[in-house]
Amino acid sequence: MAEKPRVKAPAQRSVQRTGSKGPDRRTLYAAGAVGLLVLVAIVAVAFVGFGGSTDARGALTAAGCTLEDFPGVSRAHTSNPSLRSKDWNSFPPTSGEHYVTPAVYGYYGEPVQLARMLHGLEHGGVFMLYGPGAPADTADRLRTIYDRDPRGLVVAPLPGLGDRIALGAWTGESSGDEDFGTGHLATCDEVDEEAVQAFLDAYRGRGPEQAPLDLLQPGST
User: Fold this and answer.
1) Which residue stretches of the chain are H helix?
2) In the prediction, which pLDDT does 53 show?
3) Please, how many CA atoms are within 13 Å of residue 65, restricted to the half-sphere of its CB?
4) Where are the alpha helices (DSSP H) in 129-184?
5) Res 195: pLDDT
6) What is the pLDDT at residue 5?
7) Which uninterrupted H or E stretch holds 156?
8) Rg (CA), the chain
9) Rounded to whole angstroms, how far apart are CA atoms 70 and 91?
10) Are 77 and 99 in contact (CB under 8 A)?
11) What is the pLDDT of residue 217?
12) What's the CA gap between 180 and 122, in Å, rounded?
């Protein structure tokens, strides 16, 4: 039988890889890492934005305080600094009609007119008030917190509080007049520094007028 002719296998051609053929694995890994970092950042921002009030509620509850939220009722101005509006839905008030000139941020030894103080809350401030029957060291302990970071704070006695301590803030999502925001009021039997700080961290500097916190310095309005 005649021998079949042998057929040579085709020669293997080497292919040179170039950058034009698409991203290599290192590029893909780098892009994936960047995407993951962006996702983590977004989640972190969301946590800070929505978790602050939860942290405050937990800290205040642990300290034996109560925290209530009240729907904003008005952002109208009045010419009466001694106003006590029937529309106010909390005591002390945390939203509503208020005097045209805010109370100066600071530490007071005498009561401050509520209508003035309320205007400061609209800017993003916080009040820390105490009744005449509160523990004897209340004023000093609030002073310690105030001295640590006095921005946007009004600390003062308020006879109507009896033996209680009150922390108040007014928050809003926009500076538009139609956004009445939300009032926040915590009441406590005594000063718990961790709980007070949690309240400040959650609500200070978030007023409906959206004023930058650094503008709310002691001696200013």
Assistant:
1) 25-62, 114-123, 138-148, 193-203
2) 79
3) 27
4) 138-148
5) 98
6) 45
7) strand 153-157
8) 30
9) 11
10) yes
11) 97
12) 9
Residue with tokens 């007014």: 170
Question: What is the spatial distance between Cα 167 and Cα 134, in angstroms, rounded to a whole number?
Answer: 14
**Where do the structural domains in the chain lie, given as residue ranges?**
76-174+199-221
Counting as low any pLDDT under 70, the low residues of the chain are 1-51, 176-177
∠ CA 97-98-104, rounded to 5°: 160
Phi and psi for 72 in degrees, rounded to 5? -60, 145
Q: What is the dihedral of CA 79, 84, 86, 87, to 10 degrees?
A: 70
**125-158: per-residue pLDDT in tens?**
999 999 999 999 999 999 999 999 999 999 999 9
Instruction: Give the Cα separation of 110 and 102 in Å (integer).
Output: 16
Which amino acid, residue 83? L
Tokens (6 digits) for 138: 């209340």
Q: Could you tell me if 129 and 164 are in contact, meaning their C-beta atoms sit under 8 angstroms apart?
A: no
